[in-house]
Amino acid sequence: MPKQQCKLFPPPPRDTLAFEKAAGLNGYSAITGIDEAGRGPLAGPVTAAAVILPVGLMLTGVDDSKKLTPEKREALYSLIMNHAISVGVASVPPAEIDRINILQATRLAMLTAVEQLSPTPDLLLIDGISTIESPLPQRTIKKGDSLSLSIAAASIIAKVTRDRYMIEMDSVYPGYGFSRHKGYGSTVHLEAIKRLGPCPIHRLTFAGVKEWLPPLV
Question: For 20-137, where are the E strands, in sequence order?
Answer without folding.
Answer: 31-37, 46-52, 86-92, 123-127
